[in-house]
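Lecture 7, part B: from sequences to assemblies.

Below are the input chains for today's worked example.
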Amino acid sequence: MKTVNPVKKTMIKNVIFDFDDTLFDHRHSSREGLRAVWKRYTCFHEMTLEELEAEHAEILEQIHFSHVLFGKMTIEEARAERFKFLFLDRGVEVDYNTAENAAQIYRMAYQKHRRRSEGAEEILKLFKKDYKIGIITNNLISEQEEKLEFLELKKYIDLMVTSEEARVPKPDPQIFNLILTKLKAKPDETVMIGDSWEHDIMGAHNAGMKCIWLNHNKLPCPDPAVALEIRTLKNPEYIRSLFSTAGFSK
Ligand SMILES: [Mg+2]
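Predicted structure of the full complex, as structure tokens:
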């Protein structure tokens, strides 16, 4: 009688997280920052806070990636520039000082409301026992280091790689290869958990990692063969159980 060889399973040894909107609740901070700006300037009152959030996110993506990450602007200049555009979209032309004031109002409320994503500490605490833990993030080193300290998550993290250090942002394979090299990790023994399909999931998938998509907004999954899905970090035991799901470990 023939025996069938069991499917060879790869042991997962490393787990890499995205930072903003995965371990850190950026959306909450940003919403509170924008609420403060919305309250202060009447030109925004004809739109809802949700509409302002959507517009802000779009401008943030454009300016942050094209200017800050490539050193064309300081983060303060980019913040003021962002608000200049938000005013312009309301038909209001403002000078640099007004834009800078709005940016400061945003920043103060943003900082005040910083918090971890629900379940972030619990999952790190549990995973730290069995895996090497990394973070890959499209942001500045100083900004992310300070945030990690503030959120009291630093003790769980073996290594953080930023786009500033890698000189390229996610989803460029170079940033994923850099963290794998630094962690001495093999891609197929590594799981990436992140909220951005484009930056985290496709980037990690193309680097040969296993992927778990933190799909907060219940969006349709672009390709279920590429990543397993979760809605929250709140159930770390369940998330770990996904590591042995058929098709995930091979
Ligand atoms: Mg993110």
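Note for the exam: The beta strands are 14-17, 132-137, 159-162, 190-194, 210-214, 228-230. Keep this in mind when comparing with the next example.
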